[in-house]
Amino acid sequence: MPQTAVYPGSFDPPTLGHLDIVERASHLFDSLIVAVGENSAKQSYLSVQDRIEALRECTLDNPAIQVEAFSGLLVDFVRSKSSRVVVRGLRAVSDFEYEARVAMANRRLAPEIETVFLFTRDEFSFLSSSVVREVAELGGDFSGFVPEAVKRIIERSRGAGRA
Ligand code: PNS
Question: Which has the closest alpha carbon to 128: 139, 120, 117?
Answer without folding.
Answer: 120
